[in-house]
Amino acid sequence: MEEDLRFCTVKPVVDCGRRNCFEVSSPTKSLVLQADGEEAYLEWVIAMQQAIGAAIQRGMGTGTVVNIRELQSQNVKGLNRQHAKPKSRNSGNKF
């Protein structure tokens, strides 16, 4: 697979007979990957798109694997915050 993410793309795969699939393509190779579930699928696609965008903006070639992991970690933290239940302001007070 291409080490330089500037030359890669990621897109959903709809017509493969499986759920939660996406394709990562480089000039030399394409991979169709399947996530365990919809949430993981969204995390991977978003992380890959952000990493590719960051690589294009920065003109990076090496070290992009670290950026993918960092971006995925940030996305997971963001999703966890979105799914957390808001705490009541008066949770312990009885007025």
From TrEMBL:
The keyword Metal-binding appears for this protein:
yes
Instruction: Give GO terms: molecular function aspect only.
Output: GTPase activator activity; metal ion binding
Query: Which parts of the sequence belong to the PH domain?
Result: 1-53
Region of interest: Disordered: 75-95
Sorted keywords for this record are: Metal-binding, Zinc
Task: Report whether Zinc shows up as a keyword of the record.
Answer: yes
Q: What is this protein called?
A: Arf-GAP with coiled-coil, ANK repeat and PH domain-containing protein 3
Native source species: Melipona quadrifasciata
Provide the taxonomic classification: Eukaryota, Metazoa, Ecdysozoa, Arthropoda, Hexapoda
